[in-house]
Amino acid sequence: MASILTVLNQISNIKKIEVILPIAGKIAMVTPMTVGDDLALKTSILSPANLDMELVNLLYKHTEFVEPQIADGENSGGEKKFIKPKAQTFISELSHIDKLSLLWAIYKATYESLGKRKIRCDKCGEEWEEEILLDDIIQEDTYTLLETEKQPFTTYVEKITIPLDENNMLEFTVRIPSIKNHNNILAMITKDKIESNLEKIRSTLDATEMIALFTKTLAVYPKNRPEERTETSSIQEILAALNTHINLTTAKQFTKEYDEKFGKYAIKFYKKSKCQCGNEIKIPVDIDYEFFLRGLLDRESGE
Ligand SMILES: [Zn+2]
Known about the structure:
This protein is α+β, with helices and mostly antiparallel strands. It has 11 helices and 12 strands. It is about 40% helix and about 20% strand.
């Protein structure tokens, strides 16, 4: 005789959300959080890195890859297969951007809504409350797929070269960070610092920490003598070097150049709305910020 669990699994229709992982070039299927999952995240007082790892474990538990994949062509037909990736593959071969897509999917599967948000028209000053449904924040430009010739993203790098001073150059080898890269940088930063980032700049990482996250290798060399280079791939060394030796101008130039090369791949979640005065409004949603705000400060956006 079948167990009650087997029967329940057969007859109940668990909501499954199919989602694009734009950087890894995959399609994933995500199932909802259970009561136990939700409580585990809410009641644990964790360091940011541990909170992030809890989230990654949770996403991993609820994710399967769908085959055929994007690269196999949409019209290849045949039965869809669901494949559980290895945990190691999941954190090294998916990007932080893919993780945001999975986070959207698990919120969508579990809650449907992100709750109400205070909106203010930047034209007439009218204020109102509006519910933000997960479906509302997907737009035609939300996802930009990484070109197949740049895949896998783990080996795709670009160079950014910026003068350090009159005589020396800094060379950044930059990347799209993986889930693991992102977790490694969170582990380097204190909980207090991340809470301060969330409050002051509405982001988990500040500009320097972002640069460290995007940098695979940092090199310094005398101008005109690039062969006399000193370089490091250690995240500790990169972060320490940036904290001590990078000024605002360098940081701004880095951000501008990184944006030109990689900015288009960032996931853009936003809801389109309209004020009664006719002004069209975009309500941006930073899903990573929302998650850490709930997890670390126990607050929701707009509070
Ligand atoms: Zn208005």
